[in-house]
Amino acid sequence: MSPAPRLYGGVDLGGTKIQTAVVGARGKVLGEAREPTPASGGPPAVAEAIERTVRAATDAASTKPDALTAVGVGSPGEVDEGTGTVAQARNVSGWDGPFPLGPTLSESLGTRVVLGNDVSVATRAEFELGAGKPYTSIIGVFWGTGVGGGLILDGREWSGRGAAGEIGHTVVKIGGRRCGCGRRGCLEAYAGRASMEAKARRLVEQGERTALFEIMEKRGRTRLTSGVWDRALQDQDKMARQLIDQAVEALGAGIASANNLLDVEAIVIGGGLGTKLGEPYVERIREAMMPHLFVDDRPPPLHVAALGDLGGAIGAALVAKGKPASRG
Ligand SMILES: [Zn+2]
After folding, report:
1. Ramachandran sector of residue 202 (left: φ over 0; alpha: ψ -120 to 50; beta: rest)
2. Are residues 293 and 315 in the same domain?
3. Are 105 and 192 contained in the same domain?
4. If you measure from the C-alpha of residue 179 to the centroid of ligand 1, how many angstroms do you get, rounded to a whole number?
5. I need a labelling partner for 78 at 20 to 30 A (CA). Which of 43, 148, 160, 254 fits?
6. b or e along 264-297 (b: 16 or more beta carbons within 10 Å of the residue's beta carbon)?
7. Which of 324, 313, 328, 327 is nearest to 159 (CA)?
8. Which structural domain range is residue 16 located in?
9. 174 by DSSP, 3-state: which?
């Protein structure tokens, strides 16, 4: 009898939702599940929600969590891959100090759990299986609750001393808008969904009008999700358009600056907003880059992340599988 095929779990822990996938050895998705990231209860509530999604995804794949060879979790914040702790996951409500996410999940799921940085695992998935496949050097830009970046250089993931890829905190305006990180003028302060929502709320307090929050309530949401922004843009909502215009300008400046330094073969745009708004907005980011590109006669191609919403979860499963990204 041949041994059972190896299956891996992948979890993408985001500020808005938890997306989980059960993935076969060749990267095929066999089951998936998602639920909103708990807005209260802190890390223990998040760990329970992750456990539920893994159980739901394994049900969908007709298996059980303890039958998975390993589960990978792509997490925001400071991820200690050695001990399995996560600290300072700022986009997840109530997550400040270190929490032993890996050991907690390993105990409740009955299998090995491996942690990775959410953005680097999503970049790896695009590089190995998605829009980055034809290339050996890419920048992944994940435009969602925050703005994350991942780097593959010369076929290998580049993590620097552990903190590389923070394109969201490159400065696009000296002394500019306050960022969630406490500094001023970061790309994320203009393009991160959390920052854009805070800005929209301030504008409403100042008496400006928008349909953003009505759309949010109509959909039973408590936050301005990518779908809410998309709807407001389609309705020609003036505030939504202005804030997204500023986000596109900031992304153009930030990505062009990163490319001036690295000169990669391609840039992949993912994240909740990146995949929801898709090609028309990626085209606008391409145009917004042009004035800032030092070598502007051969701009790098920009692609929408091909794995869409599932990229982070698939990438986390690849981390669980273990082989580091490399090609070329
Ligand atoms: Zn910042």
Report:
1. alpha
2. no
3. no
4. 5
5. 254
6. bebbbbbbbbbbbbeeebbebbbebbeebbeeee
7. 324
8. 8-122+311-321
9. coil
Distance (Å) from CA 141 to ligand 1 centroid: 15
C-alpha 28 to ligand 1 mean position (Å):
36
Q: Mark whether 181 and 233 lie in a shared domain.
A: yes
- 190 and 302 fall within a common domain: yes
DSSP state of 210: -
Q: What is the whole-number distance in angstroms between the Cα of residue 53 and the centre of ligand 1?
A: 31
Print pLDDT tens along the chain (328 aa).
556 779 999 999 988 889 999 999 888 999 999 999 998 999 999 999 999 999 999 999 999 999 999 999 999 888 988 899 999 887 788 898 899 999 999 999 999 999 999 999 999 999 999 999 999 999 999 999 899 999 999 999 998 988 899 999 999 999 999 999 999 999 999 999 999 999 999 999 999 999 999 999 999 998 999 999 999 999 999 999 999 999 999 999 999 999 999 999 999 999 999 999 999 999 999 999 999 999 999 999 999 999 988 999 999 999 999 866 556 4
Distance 185 CA to ligand 1 centre (A): 7
Amino acid at 93: S
Whether residue 157 is found in the same domain as residue 225:
yes
Same domain? 85 vs 174: no
Residue 58 carries which side chain, given as an amino acid letter? T
- What's the gap in Å between 156 CA and the centre of ligand 1? 26
**Ligand 1 center–CA 147 separation, angstroms:** 9
153 and 263: one domain?
yes
| Domain-located, residue 192 | yes
Count of structural domains within the chain:
2
| CATH code of the domain in which 89 resides | 3.30.420.40
